Amino acid sequence: MNTPAISIAMSVFNGERFLAPAIESVLAQTFGDFEFLILDDGSRDSTADIIRAAAARDSRIRPILRENRGLVASLNQLLAEARAPLVARMDADDICRPERFARQIAFLAGNPDHGVVGSWSEDIDENGEPYSVTGPEHPDSHEGFLAAIENGWPLLCHPAVMYRRDLVRSVGGYHAAFRHCEDLDLWLRLASITRLCSLPERLIRYRHYADQVSSRHATEQQIGAAVARLAWDERQAGRPDPTATLSELPPLQDLNALFGRPDAASRVRARVAPGLLYSRAGLGDHGFDLVVDYLREGGARDGMWRTVARLMRFGDPVRAARLAATLALTTVA
Predict the structure, then answer these.
(1) Where does the Glycosyltransferase 2-like domain lie (predicted)?
(2) What is the mean pLDDT of residues 250-258?
(3) Cα gap 297→288, rounded to integer Å
(4) Any residues with CB less than 8 A from the CB of 54 and at least 6 apart, and which?
(5) Number of compact structural domains in the chain
(6) Domain contains 1
(7) Which of 122, 307, 318, 319 is 20 to 30 A off residue 63, Cα-Cα?
(8) pTM of the entire structure?
(9) Residue among 51, 60, 58, 52 nearest 11 (CA)
């Protein structure tokens, strides 16, 4: 078999709802020299049937059907099985614009010093309608990428990236410890050895809906992201990365010992707590205790009383009362 120019890497778990149009958007690309790896991570719905039917229609699709092992294991398996020197990520609930691969492969061909290129996104809801998102765009230069790291801004849209396979494998691929934010950790590790940016074109339609990972695992994702940024700080200071060999992150209270500094856990809480104030999922799980601990440590109170009201609207008067009592006690203190 001839080596394709690009390997498309898609992992799917119970993705029947949006999978077919996601696949079709890849097959409709103006650049067609690719293999399309679709890994079914032990789905219990009709995902496998959809993949088999698509593979029967287009020989570029390579189905991988197996038991559930989780997203990080799936992404690393896709990296290992990819035959092309370039890998394009794609999720099973998003839509590629027809010219996406052509634009990205041309950029990487013309910029050999760049190892990763993403794109801006058009944000849509579960019905394909516009979804309002605020905040800065993904940086369109490496210098902007480094500034985004320092400011805590978004770095790359994971399902919109194309990267050099061997470069990603040289840093160990995706790290299991950073489940639900494995991409952020990877970009931070790659930023020390290559240039990264996004094309200022909306080459992917990125879908938002209640059941996606970022909604269901908001607290774990944000804690992992904050720890990944601490690890970046350690590497930038010339110190060893204490997360490099971990298979999972320790509890928050053990971060001080892990990083060998007395403020590691409080720094993570300070980064995570403000982002949880608007997350129903985060306030409904152990993220609530993180917010309370953050206040007890003297954290900023901006928006906290509005969060009390928000908890009441969420139908959680017990936590609303706990947060109000914590605010009252920290005011006295």
Answers:
(1) 7-170
(2) 97
(3) 14
(4) 20, 23, 27, 38, 61
(5) 2
(6) no
(7) 122
(8) 0.94
(9) 51
